[in-house]
Amino acid sequence: MMMALGMFVFSLPTLAYQELHRQTEWKHASTSRVGARDAHQFTGKGDDTVTLSGWIAPELTGSVYSLDALRLMADTGKSWILILGTGRILGSFIITNMTEGRTHLAQDGDAGRIEFTIALKRTDESVLGLLNTLGDLGSIKNMLSLEGIGNSVNNAINTGRSTLNNVTNSVRSLF
User: A single Pfam family, by name (predicted)?
Assistant: First the structure.
């Protein structure tokens, strides 16, 4: 295990990142002074962001479904505990951005290589509070499992088919 974000584990079979960048900011208000440098006053903590980047080759290592699982987690808008593989807790983070690039495409459009970048931003939520509000771990585990992702995709496909059938029937009734 390289890292865990909530119930999602970054590893070779799921999503192994090659780079981790962390940027921490502190806020200082400044006031102009005549004949001297500006005066600065510490006003508090600023943003704490983590950016993960890397690539997967689904036929060799990593899973495209891992990116889908992270998107589902981001869709909840919740904070997730970020824990390094060493056991060090970095705090609670939200997923703010994901980018993905697909190359080495096959005839069916499937990618042989997928590059990704994931941006996380720290929230002020208590890590202990998050542990108490996880709720039913079974439902979270199901959401992040391949079966849970498959069910979500199937539901979306069935909804799309139903909508397409309704549109087709409406068009047919016009003629």
Answer: Phage_P2_GpU
Residue 117 burial (CB count, 10 A): 16
pLDDT in the model for residue 63? 83
Q: How many Å is the maximal CA-CA distance in the chain?
A: 82
Tokens of 55: 């690539």
**Tens digits of residue pLDDT in 16-71:** 999 999 999 999 999 999 999 999 999 999 999 999 999 988 888 888 889 999 99
* Sequence-distant contacts of 82-89: CB under 8 A, at least 24 apart: 82/3, 82/4, 82/5, 82/50, 82/120, 83/3, 83/4, 84/2, 84/3, 85/1, 85/2, 85/3, 85/4, 89/127
Q: What's the CATH number for 3-31+39-135? A: 2.40.30
What is the per-residue burial (b if ≥16 Cβ within 10 Å, else e) of 148-165? bbeeeeeeeeeeeeeeee
Of 127 and 115, the one with more pLDDT: 115
Rounded to 10 degrees, the C-alpha dihedral 76/159/64/67 comes to -10
Strands lying side by side in the sheet with 89-105: 8-10, 3-5, 80-84, 89-105, 111-122, 36-56, 19-33
The structural domains of the chain, with segments of one domain joined by +, span 3-31+39-135, 145-175
